[in-house]
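Batch job 17 of 40 flagged for manual review because the log was empty.
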Amino acid sequence: IAEILPYHTRQKVTEIENVLDSNNTNAILRTSEALGIQDAHLVYGNIKYIPQKSVSKGAHLWMDTFKYGNESEDNANNCIQLLKSKGYQLVVTSLHAKNTIDDIDITKPMAICFGQESKGVSNTFLSQADITVSIPQYGFTNSYNVAVAAGMILLPLLEKIRKSNLRWHLEDAEKQLIYKTWLVQYHQPIEAHFKRYQMNK
């Protein structure tokens, strides 16, 4: 835990909107955590996110996930307002965008937004995006799987900020709080295993 925590960041966060297949959501979370992203924002209506350890490898246990799933509220707008209030620029992925990840201003904190497999991000996110980006394509298929696209976008962005002089690290107070949370989560399965062992003796 002490070795991993310094690599986590809130300079970049992941936002996932109405992704239909929980496998894709779990895969994006897995990629995000593996790259050191601390926060993920999940926007959904009737579509519920279901953690699947076989896909996520427990990534959600090491991240802070913010969920917007109240059917009586404008979940997309609520998420956007929270992100903007924290100073994040919205980087929205879109098949029709002319910009690429090379056009993103990495000096600003950013929320990278991924949308539904078939429809992409909603008009709410598109209309309030600070920049829309696409991934170059050279084949006959006209889109990438959303989880694959997330990896293709997140990796180079995270590599750029780690090689820069930006202050992308977590603050000391944040690290202390996360450290304590992780310790609790790390010990829970050990305690459960110990109890089972005691019962079977």
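Reviewer: the log was empty due to a logging misconfiguration, but the result itself is present. The CA atoms of residues 8 and 36 lie 4 Å apart. Unflagging and moving on to job 18.
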